Amino acid sequence: MQQTQPHVIWINGAFGSGKTTAAKLLAQKVPGAVIVDPEEIGALLRPVLQPVVPVHDFQEWPAWRKLVASTLNAVLRELPEDSPMIIVVPQTVTVEDYWSEITSDLDPSVRLTPVVLNIDLVEHRRRAEEDTEEPDALRWRLNNFPVSQQSAWLRRAFTDIDVSSLTQEQTVAAIRAVAFPPDPEAV
């Protein structure tokens, strides 16, 4: 039986750019793929650490960054070796040092495919205002949009996908094209 190389597809981008939706659709289209949402790790830590080590964003806690990498490694170890061993991660990371910390703690056998969903301001605002799943996140998304657009390191570390005029299906197709490029020897 051939062992599959563990694969993490990290979807970065502005809050409200469509990361979670893309992750869900991608996981549906890639049999056996699972989603790990680091927001849930932040939600776990918030009631424990916020009272004693208050932060503006849970990503500031070194524990969050360590736990994200540890969780990805642990989930990959739990997946059956004959499964695709693919994790899709929808998470905005705008601090390069945080990204470096997370990725340096990943198991070295993991194939990492980092993509960033870029979106223009007008389309971002439209999507944020029309969101029915998290309408309370509107202000957060609009206020934090400039941060994700000003992080030049993202364009160096991640494959850029402009989703401003893409449908959800087209976005997923673009992510798949980056994550699963055609094998030139198979042609």
Automatic annotation (TrEMBL):
Origin: domain of life: Bacteria
Stored Gene3D superfamilies: P-loop containing nucleotide triphosphate hydrolases
Alphabetical list of InterPro entries matching this protein: P-loop_NTPase (IPR027417)
Protein name (record): ATP-binding protein
Phylogenetic classification of the source organism: Bacteria, Bacillati, Actinomycetota, Actinomycetes, Mycobacteriales
